Structures are given as structure tokens and as C-alpha cells.
Amino acid sequence: MQHIKSIGRYLFTIPFGLFGIMHLLNAGQMVALVPSWLPGGVFWVYLTGLALIAAAVSFVIQKHTYLAGLLTAALMVVFVLTIHLPGLIGGNMMAMSGLLKDLGLAGGALLLAANYQDN
User: Fold this and answer.
1) CA distances from 56 to 28, 89, 97 (A)
2) What average pLDDT is seen over the chain?
3) Could you give the number of structural domains in the chain?
4) pTM above 0.85, yes or no
5) Residue 21's domain spans which residues?
């Protein structure tokens, strides 16, 4: 059972690490996703990329995993509410896949946090 948990944790971590790297490497293109009412533009893309990489590292080395899981879940919900839901309401049906992906990742992050609550 422990092997299954480890494999699941690594598989869950891969997207966060890759998304974080993508944020850092493609900040110029990703800045368009930052809500226009939020000042700072590309700063938020870089900050988000670093946060995603930090979460991935935390999940792999199993240090501060509870906190990282909670914060990652919160970030995913922020994405749902500020990027995907407004897009969906605005008629972009492609936003539904991002909404569901980030909602699922938020749920997974909460499950991971719950497994490390005592650590």
C-alpha cells in the first residue's frame, strides 16, 4: 500500500513542477491569463510559477507537505474563481476543462494534505 501512495504522490506532483517551470519560461504569454483588475501582471505569473515549484519540491521531499497541500489547494481554487469561471461565464466553453482540472487538483492537494496532517 505504501508503494501505491508513493507512486500517487509522485504522479500528482509532476504537473505542479512542470506547470511551475512553464510559468517561468513562458511568462510573457501567460500574463494574458492574469485578471486585468489585478495590478502587477507578469509578477503574478512568476510568483505562481515559484509557488508551484515550491509545492512540488515539498511534496517530493515530504517536508511541510500539509501546509503545501493546503496552499496549493487554495491556489487552484483561486484559479478556478478568477480565470476559469469568468471565462466560462463569458462564453468560453474551453474554460470548462481548466476549471475541472484545477478543481480536481485542489481536491487532490487537500487529500495529500490530510495524509500529512500530523507531519
Assistant:
1) 23, 31, 22
2) 94
3) 1
4) yes
5) 2-115
